[in-house]
Design brief:
The chain is of the alpha+beta class. It has a single domain, classed as Glutaredoxin (3-Layer(aba) Sandwich). Helices cover about 55% and strands about 10% of the residues. The radius of gyration is 20 Å and the shape is globular. It comes from Lithohypha guttulata. InterPro entries: DSBA-like_thioredoxin_dom (IPR001853), GST_Kappa/NadH (IPR051924), Thioredoxin-like_sf (IPR036249). This is DSBA-like thioredoxin domain-containing protein.
């Protein structure tokens, strides 16, 4: 059955990175099932303000647990090592506005690699992309955009139209899709005639089994295997030698 995944992401959220990695990795398979994906830049600070949510790093217990969870997620998704930068929580308005510009002006083949790289700069290199000079370096880093194009992106990011676009993306994410954090996934399933038959939110980067169930997609879930008595017996015998 046709459907789509709207992924609302912010480079200030490391778990948004894992969601982007996952969706890009499986885009072709999703497309083969007639599932479209759409990556939408939002401002997590605005979502938190609108809903009263707080960054995990501001809560002592969550801040203490965070490095364990982040390291495990990096291993699970096969990414580079991510750690919390000293300027966290960061103000991501500039990079998110830039991504609104790039999404509007360039193909997905440019937009998504550039967006993906921002997390590496923030959480691996610990570069504050709220600073225009740093943001320019990050945009130039992969070679997708020329220096003139990057300058244009940065200039447009300061315009009223682009600021309004990011605000609208964020407002819609909160008011229409119920977001209180990121990554925020909005899952839509339609019938063959295009009529919407299901629309539900999924929060986080570790709930893909829910996404795929909602979309009626075949998948392998986590499954605990039974102990193999023969192997267990052999291990015991070896241990006695």
């Amino acid at each position: 059955m046709p459907g789509k995944v709207l992924a609302h992401l912010d480079c200030a959220s490391p778990y948004s990175y894992f969601a982007l990695i996952h969706l890009r990795r499986y885009r072709a398979i999703l497309a083969s099932h007639n599932i479209k994906t759409d990556i939408i830049p939002v401002f997590l600070g605005g979502i938190n303000h609108a809903t009263g949510n707080k960054p995990p790093s501001t809560l002592p217990a969550k801040a203490k647990y965070g490095p364990y969870d982040l390291a495990r997620a990096c291993e699970q998704f096969g990414t580079c090592r991510l750690t919390t930068p000293p300027f966290f929580p960061m103000v991501s308005l500039l990079p998110q506005r830039c991504m609104c510009v790039i999404k509007a002006k360039y193909a997905v083949e440019t937009f998504e690699p550039v967006f993906e790289r921002l997390w590496v700069w923030v959480f691996n290199k610990h570069v504050d992309l709220a600073q225009p000079a740093n943001m320019k370096e990050a945009l130039l880093d992969g070679g997708e955009l020329s220096e003139n194009q990057v300058d244009e992106v940065l200039n447009l990011a300061g315009t009223k139209e682009v600021k309004s676009q990011l605000n609208e993306n964020t407002r819609r994410c909160v008011e229409e899709y119920g977001a209180f954090g990121a990554p925020w996934l909005w899952i839509v399933k339609t019938d063959q005639g295009g009529k919407e038959v299901l629309a539900e939110p999924v929060f986080g980067s570790d709930r893909w089994m829910y996404v795929y169930k909602l979309l009626d997609l075949p998948f392998h879930d986590v499954k605990l295997l039974k102990r193999q008595e023969e192997n267990a017996s052999r291990q015991v015998s070896d241990a006695k030698l």
